[in-house]
Write a structure and sequence with these properties.
single chain, mainly alpha, Arc Repressor Mutant, subunit A, Serine Threonine Protein Phosphatase 5, Tetratricopeptide repeat, two-stranded antiparallel ribbon, 30 helices, globular
Length: about 650
């Protein structure tokens, strides 16, 4: 078993499964901390005694030996009796912790900072951002007042501040001056004696066009340094003020790497391609496809400009061009509710018109050539994707046709797009998680073989959902890890939204309700600004309601809770807690849940409300709809929330109906 040690925060240790190891009392942790500070060197027992007690008791040496014995049992629980310890060893007059360099978070942090000395700004930024995430609080937090820890705590704190400033410097080199300024503003407020932080903040403000603010920062730095330290600013800080006043050329960012290539290529394109050229429309869709996966406002902006690009293509009267513009937007989609129904309807209408324009006319007309067949498949896949979550027959039909064409043409990218459409139309009844798992598995294999990173991530996300529905969290964990790795490699920040929600779902099903509640709230905070209103609206209150139902806790809701699109299926259950007459009326008017990822969850909430008010007709319907999913976890197929085993809800319904389960 490999043990990992954490000292960048409270002193702790974890086993190779990631579970915290019980280290007993504060003096046990003090011994461990003291040995970690010694960095694999022997610490004499007498030194440990002096460090642990200002006034050592008579049996202090025996007590230290007792602490060490307890630590050994905790750190090497499978060590045979009387076998020598391999991790916490006795040597000469004392003890040493033979931890490997990569098993102590502080040592890994030092290595990461040292390694960035020769790296590019891109690599410095990525490496140090990851390294800084290791910090859980002040180093050796519970030993802040111990003399033996003081120097090490101070050294690590200084190294952390240096790393924060290196990250800001890398951001400036990458052209991210606004982001650097935001981080540095908080940094200098906490650490006003750091001249380099003031210098970087002023430079970041200057590069965002805020010359006055940059000069104000330098004046504030001069005042604080004089008042708190009694010193004048150093030469670099003084020189920066003069350079800002003189608009020195060297202060302007030097485009490099990707930024330089982008600027030069864009300028060349503008010069070479006429403004009215049709090629610009197709190039635009390629940009929009990348914009859609960047996070923030990118997805909403991409959708808006996509509709405009389709309209512009149709205005030109070129069906083939329109088909390419519509079909090139093959952005992998995982959520079964469209973000903007009006935009989706416009895309579907244009796709249908274009299909008609491309179709062969007249009796006995020749079949479409291969290029047109591929375009037709993309139009059909678009129709299936944009009609997801509805009961229209056109969506499943279009998905089947797109898949058939893609398999016949043996086009991997086209097949991946078609499989996405098939997935979106695989919700015609409950209990289809195994079918969706097969779709996800094919997407992963196909995409990995042909370098389709976005669809490979989609396949893993689909399998997270499906394996969660089947309560196979070990497999879901593996797919979440794979999705996160791909997302990091290919800069797909939206993927983390789904994997974080999955982690909350997993906790809701396997852990304490209070911890799951907090995890859901953290996950919801990440949705803010992600640009996915079809996912965001009403999801947190729904997840918390499902959590309470899952754990048989009292159902409650705030007076002004915004349930979003889920209100029809939550209202009866909430009313049933205090006003059964109104709840019964709400149940009579309740629509069937949409055929989407939350189908089973919403039927379970409806069934619970029906049980509470004694609505037999709704109970019968709920039982019939949920029966095919008896082996699944209700709602877990969304990868976001859970209402517990469907079998439990079926049992409750059967008991209320007076029938055997």
């Amino acid at each position: 078993m490999q043990v990992l040690f954490g000292v960048l925060g409270p002193v702790t240790a974890w086993d190779d499964a990631g579970d915290a190891i019980a280290l007993k009392g504060p003096r046990h942790r003090a011994v461990l901390a003291r040995l970690i500070i010694a960095r694999r060197r022997v610490v004499p027992v007498t030194r440990l005694v002096d460090d642990l007690w200002p006034d050592p008791p008579a049996d202090a040496v025996g007590a230290v030996r007792t602490f060490v014995a307890a630590l050994r049992r905790a750190l090497e629980p499978r060590r045979p009796p009387r076998a020598p310890a391999r991790l916490l060893v006795t040597e000469g007059p004392g003890y040493a912790l033979r931890a490997e360099p990569d098993t102590v978070d502080a040592w890994r942090f030092e290595q990461a900072v040292a390694a960035t000395a020769t790296l590019s700004p891109e690599d410095v930024f990525a490496r140090l951002r990851q390294a800084l995430e290791c910090w859980r609080g002040p180093a050796y937090a519970e030993f802040a007042d111990q003399p033996w820890a003081r120097a090490e705590r101070s050294r690590l704190a200084e190294l952390r501040l240096h790393a924060v400033e290196r990250v800001a410097e890398a951001r400036l080199s990458l052209g991210l001056a606004a982001e650097a300024a935001a981080d540095l503003d908080a940094h200098v407020a906490e650490h006003p004696w750091r001249e380099d932080a003031w210098r970087l903040l002023a430079l970041a403000l200057y590069r965002t066009g805020r010359q006055g603010d940059a000069l104000a920062v330098l004046r504030r730095a001069r005042t604080l340094l004089a008042e708190q330290l009694g010193v004048d600013p150093g030469p670099r800080l003084r020189g920066l003020e003069a350079d800002i006043l003189g608009h020195a050329v060297h202060l302007d960012p030097e485009p490099g790497g990707a930024a330089r290539v982008w600027a030069q290529t864009a300028a060349a394109y503008d010069r070479a391609v006429p403004s009215g050229a049709r090629a610009r429309l197709e190039s635009t869709v390629g940009l929009l496809r990348n914009l859609a996966v960047t996070g923030g406002s990118g997805l909403q902006e991409a959708r808006r400009h996509r509709v405009a690009a389709i309209a512009a293509a149709e205005e030109l009267g070129d069906a083939e061009l329109t088909a390419r513009v519509i079909g090139a937007y093959d952005v992998p989609a995982i959520w079964t509710r469209v973000d903007d129904p009006e935009q989706a309807a416009q895309a579907v209408a244009a796709a249908e018109r274009t299909l008609t324009a491309l179709a062969p006319s007249g009796y006995g007309a020749a079949p479409l050539p291969g290029g047109h067949e591929a375009a037709r498949a993309r139009l059909l896949a678009t129709i299936a994707l944009e009609t997801r979550g509805t009961r229209a027959a056109r969506g499943p039909q279009a998905a089947r046709q797109a898949e058939e064409i893609a398999r016949r043409l043996d086009d991997p990218a086209l097949l991946a797009f078609a499989l996405n459409a098939v997935f979106m139309q695989s919700f015609d009844r409950a209990g289809l998680a195994p079918h969706r798992d097969e779709i996800g598995a094919e997407l992963v294999t196909l995409s990995a073989r042909h370098g389709l990173a976005g669809f490979e991530v989609l396949g893993h996300l689909i399998r997270i959902q499906a394996r969660s529905a089947l309560a196979d969290f070990a497999a879901a964990d593996r797919h979440a890890t794979a999705a996160d790795r791909l997302a990091e490699r290919h800069e797909l920040p939206l993927v983390g939204v789904f994997t974080q929600w999955y982690a909350a779902l997993r906790l809701a099903e396997t852990g304490p309700a209070a911890e799951a509640d907090a995890a859901y709230r953290d996950a919801a905070a990440r949705l803010d600004g992600a640009g996915m209103p079809g996912l965001e609206h009403g999801l947190l209150p729904l997840a918390l309601l499902c959590l309470r139902v899952r754990h048989a806790l009292p159902v409650q809701a705030g007076e002004h809770t915004d349930w979003g699109p889920y209100e029809p299926w939550t209202r009866p259950l909430l009313l049933a807690q205090g006003c059964r007459t109104e709840a019964a009326a709400a149940l009579r008017n309740i629509p069937d849940p949409p055929r989407d990822l939350l189908f089973e969850a919403l039927w379970c909430l409806t069934g619970q409300a029906a049980i509470t008010v004694g609505d037999r007709e709704t109970m019968e319907r709920a039982h019939a709809e949920l029966a095919p999913a008896a082996a699944e976890l209700a709602g877990a197929g969304s990868g976001l929330l859970t209402v517990g085993p469907v079998s439990k809800h079926l049992g409750d319904l059967a008991a209320a109906l007076g029938r055997p389960h």
